[in-house]
Amino acid sequence: MQLSHAMSLLDAARSKAEHLGVRVSISIVDAAAWPMAFIRMDGCPLGAIEVSHKKARTAVLFQMDSADFATIAHPDGAAYSLENTNGGLTSFGGGVVLMGPDGTMLGAIGVSGASTEDDIAIARAATRPAG
Amino acid sequence: MQLSHAMSLLDAARSKAEHLGVRVSISIVDAAAWPMAFIRMDGCPLGAIEVSHKKARTAVLFQMDSADFATIAHPDGAAYSLENTNGGLTSFGGGVVLMGPDGTMLGAIGVSGASTEDDIAIARAATRPAG
Amino acid sequence: MQLSHAMSLLDAARSKAEHLGVRVSISIVDAAAWPMAFIRMDGCPLGAIEVSHKKARTAVLFQMDSADFATIAHPDGAAYSLENTNGGLTSFGGGVVLMGPDGTMLGAIGVSGASTEDDIAIARAATRPAG
Amino acid sequence: MQLSHAMSLLDAARSKAEHLGVRVSISIVDAAAWPMAFIRMDGCPLGAIEVSHKKARTAVLFQMDSADFATIAHPDGAAYSLENTNGGLTSFGGGVVLMGPDGTMLGAIGVSGASTEDDIAIARAATRPAG
């Protein structure tokens, strides 16, 4: 994935957030979990900065959306304590894997600052553009 | 335990993983929890690297398989919060203690990247060679 | 400082980097040292990601460019070990303070990935737009 | 780079170490600095385990051998404090970049446990096989 792609994802996510009337942080990481691009919208809670990054990181490291990771990395899940590895991961939604046309993982987007439902909707708006 | 022994454990674990058609990270640590050998199979999720090490570390530090550790180091267990000591430990299966012929602990193997069931089977394939 | 301002600084810095033919990471932080926006240009060394952030953070935390911070936070400077505070700071150039028209500090920009000379030139191209 | 390649590098490095009569730790990381394979030779000092990893990581993150990194990331160098970024890097030799036939960086090898001179010789024996 190149920076131009990451920037278009940021733009799409920000548009969705504005449409929903919420203020979020948005992080894009590559397939090895290294940061590519990031923005914090005006008024976004400061705590959401790191969360947006950890959501994207979680999605890449385990090749699944953070909402799915949450079902296993939880006291009631099959792999409780997994959320405490790799510097701390995120067991709720808002981190979404980016897949290429050929099914390879390109990276991930992480969104934080709104409700989890809205965070997920914003991430998906970026990763699943209207056809 | 010597490196040659650790390498043979890695080979046995990798063979089992290939037989199961899964891609895992495999860590061998000595009886003092220091890393001896490690491999990450092609295609293994990146998050599994650290997890394989923590599983082996957990097994050595408490002299029990991580699946047994999970029953006590859990919000519902007798020693909740134990999993948050020693830099973070692993409360699910895939870390297996290596015992010598005389019953002394030689170290441990940790496997991560597949289902917990498969991770355990891979670790046991290495530690309990066919007779 | 608002996100729109931070994005224009990113654009100006990226243009300068492209003009110089170098590939850098660029971080913008606000006056409280919290990240506002970030990009990593294609081909930038991965180690520069964190460095760009630490340069911007250093500039804000001590209200001076990181090149000036370097003269005091150094084994030969007046405040050796200062560079080891606040999670680790940066004792070389590329972090530049952003000042408002009224002389208040708005935040900082950090650039890393090229030579220190180029990193500084890129940061200044963003903070001192042609009149 | 695939695991089979990393394993052949480990073997070549170990052979060189045995030839020199020294005991080292050897780490291979991919182009994004994620661990691929690791061994600790019998008798290697325990402190060398992490050092071998940090040498390889340093080489990848700044796309240069750690011996070259040392000339800039040093109190007398152009970028003092750079060695304290990215979780701590290594300002002496023994981390060597692995380049592919087409000039792209494949990853790096890090060797620690002997003299720096020997560590470098071992890393180079792996990365520059006899023709």
From TrEMBL, chains A, B, C, D:
It holds the Pfam family HbpS-like. PANTHER family: PROTEIN GLCG (PTHR34309:SF1), SLR1406 PROTEIN (PTHR34309). This is Heme-binding protein. It comes from Komagataeibacter swingsii. The lineage of its organism: Bacteria, Pseudomonadati, Pseudomonadota, Alphaproteobacteria, Acetobacterales.
